[in-house]
Amino acid sequence: MNYKVFFVALFFLTVLVSCKKKSERIADDPQQGTITISADESFRSVSEALTERYMALNPKTKINLVIKKEDLGFLDLLENKVRVIVMSRELSAEEKEAYKKKIDMKMEPGKFAADAVIFIVPKNSARESISMEELKNELNSDQKRIIFDGTNSSNLNFVAQKLGKVPNQLKFSVISGNKNVVKEISQYSDKIGVISLNTISRPYDKESEELKNSVKILPVISKNKTFEPNITNIKAMTYPFTRVLYFLTNEPYYGLGNGFIRFSCQQLGQIVVEKEGLQPYTIFNREVQMR
């Protein structure tokens, strides 16, 4: 038997098996591969813009965006059904423990934008604002005048958390979907719709502008001060229902998921966020040199 040929063949077989196992373990990197991410319908616009821009810059990548309620997206992350999710509320102690147990990674939120929950009424409504006390009272009323876009939605979860409640303690009505809340609120003169700013924030977008112009956006009164849900107040975090959007991942290596998160949190991604009409989380100083 030719032992030299045998050992050479054994060496190449070992290398081949090793490479195959490595490719099975890590099937993607920031420049190539396919993953799925999940985002609540409230953040559809900015999530679509970021994924589309990333794939345009990295043509060998495919990011499948699944629109799913925030709570359900978190469960999918724990079960490894998605690689990345978009969140807005603070996780509970139980959820943090579940992440630690199931994912076995340090939780490192990738903060990328400031959005807001906003309150709308029909254009012809006599109401001009809503106070925090009024909101609390309405959410305890059997008349259910507050309309959310669904149960388990990010808007409901965030408002409940802000008021120190859990969603099932609140009384409210439902119209499925942020855009549908805007389109149908005119039929209910005595009710107040709750949507995400991102639903109507994209400037120069015809649909976004039409939705925005079809309703009246209510300022929120808190501690005897009135706050509009505009970029100035969102940037300063003075609007009471400002929220920070962030990514969570179950990816233990620097693959496509972490590559996408890094892109979204750095300058190019932050420009996309700004073009969406939201407040970028990272502020880039622009210096102009004159000679």
TrEMBL record:
It comes from the Bacteria. Keywords: Signal. Pfam families: PBP_like_2 (PF12849). Residues 28-264 form the PBP domain. InterPro entries: PBP_domain (IPR024370), Phosphate_ABC_transporter (IPR050811). The keyword NAD does not apply. This is Phosphate ABC transporter substrate-binding protein. The lineage of its organism: Bacteria, Pseudomonadati, Bacteroidota, Flavobacteriia, Flavobacteriales.
